Every structure is written in structure tokens, then in C-alpha cells.
Amino acid sequence: MDEQPAYFVKSVEKAFDVLRAFTPNKPRLTVSQVAAAAYTTRASARRFLLTLADLGYLRADGAHFELTARSLEIGRSFLANLELPAIADRHLKSLAAELNETTSLCILDGADVVYVACVPSPRLLSVTITVGTRFPAWATSMGRVLLGALTEAELQTYFDTVRLQKLTEHSVGSPEQLRAEIDRARSRGWAMVSQELEEGLRGVAVPVCRGHDVVAAVNVSLQTHQSSAEDIEKSVVPRLQEVARQIGLDYGGDASGLRRA
């Protein structure tokens, strides 16, 4: 592990590790579960949990802890000052209503994609998607589009640190295979990922550009039994590209960086 700079406060890092242990799939955790997720001792985890509870960011319920509404304060300022989701909102709603599918806007944050806007489909999916949800970039259509927009040096740095895992039997199995998929997304201007993140779920994404700069990716999530990959390419991708173009224009760019399928 790289040596941290002199100013680095390890306890701050650990406090955020504790908070990030709570996820949509694991909203209630015991001390032991938090200790395992945060790679710390049970005694240390207990002190962090009790301190965060005293500060109002966690709530104790018997042997379990859970986040409180106050934890939203951490990201509220960021979201309030993020102009792009507000601009994209009406376009996502229109597309979601037209397709009857979930539409989303994502940005790249380190090795993950983060949802900054989402309009859910009336259909129920086993993947819980809300604003702030994070997924490994390599496993999503949005991630492959956004990774394709990186410089070669930035992409190499990503590959130097990324760790692939088999989330499903369809997940990419090697860095070489992933790079080929990223190159494919870059060359055609959109990406489709089928059942690599979740069985039965297919995602398609295109970049949102401000001028020639890719600033985000817009995505549609579909159930695999609803439409074939061929039908999605013919009917969904063009609509998605048009929505991305409109978002880019509204965001202050000419959207000229978008490629057509």
C-alpha cells in the first residue's frame, strides 16, 4: 500500500469507511458486520459507530445500526450545486415515459459510476437504483462509455488498479476482454451490457457531451426478456442518442462530440 502524505488523517478515512459500509442492500448492520466491511477491529468499529450515532448520522436499534436522514447532508451540497441532473431531468422523464423503462444519468467517480439522476420504471427490478447508487464502471454500459472517453494514460491508470470479479456468469473475465469492450464502445459511440451486473438486466448507454467533452452518460435499463439486443440497437439507441444530444445542448454545448450508431 502506498504511504499516505503527512497530513493524512487515518481516522477520517475510517469514519467514511464505516459510513460506506451501509448500502441499499445492507441498510442495517451489526458491529461485527461493519468491522468486516471497513476492515477494522470490532472494538474500533464500535467506537466509530457510537460516535457517529452521537453526532446524529447513525441510529442504534438493538444490536443493529442504520443511517439517519442527517447522513444526506454529506452529499446535499454537491447535488444542489450539480447543474447537469436538473437539466437532464425532463429529458429522462420523457424518455422513461416513452419507453416505459428506467432512465438514468451517471458520472464517473474513480473506478465507479455514480447515479446523479434517475427516473424509475413502473416495472420492478431486483437492482435498486437511486441517486447516489454506485456500481463498478467495468460492469455497466455507462461505465464503458465513460471509460472510453478517458485519455490512454488515464485508462491505463484505471487498468493498473481495477479488480474484476464475476458478478454473474456473463461478466467480462479479463482486462483484455474489458479493454476490447471499451474500445468497441468508443468506436461506435454507445455501449450495451447484458446480464453482467445482474441476471435478467440489460443496460444501454451513450455519452452526454458538452462540445467535445464527455461529461456524463445517459442510460436505459431493460429486462432481457422484453427486447432483444438487435431491437434495442435499432429502436432504443437512436432515441437515447437524441436525448443525450438534447441534454448536451441544454447544458451549454453543441453536442458535436456524440457519435452516431
From TrEMBL:
GO biological process, one term: negative regulation of DNA-templated transcription
A Pfam family that the UniProt record links to this protein: IclR_C
Keywords in alphabetical order: DNA-binding, Transcription, Transcription regulation
Entry-linked InterPro entries: GAF-like_dom_sf, HTH_MetabolicPath_Reg, Tscrpt_reg_IclR_C, Tscrpt_reg_IclR_N, WH-like_DNA-bd_sf, WH_DNA-bd_sf
Location of the HTH iclR-type domain: 9-69
Annotated GO MF terms: DNA binding; DNA-binding transcription factor activity
All copies of domain IclR-ED, residue ranges: 70-253
Protein's name according to its UniProt entry: IclR family transcriptional regulator
Native source species: Arthrobacter globiformis
Native organism taxonomy: Bacteria, Bacillati, Actinomycetota, Actinomycetes, Micrococcales
